[in-house]
Amino acid sequence: MAPKHATTGTQDRYCVLSPPAPKHTTDGPQKGEYSSPKKRPKSSYIPFVRATVMSLWQLDAFEYRLAGGQTVTVYQLLDDASRLDVGTHAYSRSENSADAKHVLERAIGTYGAPKELLSDNSLAFNQLRAGRIGSVEIFLAAKGTMPISGLPGKPTTQGKNERSHQTLIRFLDVNRPATLKQLQARIRRFREHYNNRRPHQALDNATPRTAWDLLPHTPATGPIPLSVLEAKASQYRQARARRQAHLDRAGLTISKTGAILPDENAREKAADQSLVDVTRANRQVYYQGFHISLPSTYADRQFYRTITDDTFLLTDPTTGEIVFSFPCRWSP
Length: 332
Known about the structure:
Blueprint: E1 4-7, E2 56-65, E3 71-79, E4 89-91, H1 97-111, E5 116-119, H2 135-143, E6 146-149, H3 159-174, H4 180-196, H5 208-214, H6 226-245, E7 253-254, E8 260-261, E9 272-278, E10 284-287, E11 290-293, E12 301-307, E13 312-315, E14 322-326
Helix pairs in contact: 1-2
């Protein structure tokens, strides 16, 4: 029997596969149906955007290969409401907290501190979900900025940054810089054009600078006590401990003869549970005849895999978050 195929979407934390659409006698999708069961349409997303400037900044980074062969890291820092680029900068090292902090220092020194900073769960940006407080979080709290992060396995939370990465990369690829110094000069040109001249579709074709000047500003108002960050890190540690405690473990009681005896105190063991590596070359999983292709954002990561009679789960081993499930827990 040939395996059934399903593709996952990165738009929802739990979604893997939607139920098959009902058949109709008329051709084409009916009202309320999706034209393809494999991909959720963009119109079904509910985008979020802050109403005021300085209420939220978004930080993300990507690697870029120079014409000379060197690979560098480019950090992009955007204001959520106005889309103003407040701090794109490049560094020779791979993604790290020292360079991330330097990007934030430069931007805050120019524009002031925002109320919140959103990033992914890179330990270079935000370690709270790992139950720790890093140097970036301490710096932000001292400026009055609360560090927050998107849900693991849900990259659409940082969609504005991902889209801005593409725009910057296209700009750089037209005349690829050969050195880091040339790259920095191109980034300055890009920021001047992007912020002040280029109409932005999400802003009704206004420029980010115009939106920045017209919208109300709600910056940070005072330092955040370190105890607030400690409480958040503690909550994540406790939540992770509870989730990991729920991961079934094999309970074996061995007699002196080597016989395996039933363990009355052990919980029922899951059908299959193990720590698995998902690679970029192999992102396929199989469950009850379904052949499921994981999105590329899951590549080069480790997960706890749990298989029961009616569920397939992938769990982040660091945070304890369920990042993938089958059957689908999302319904349109």
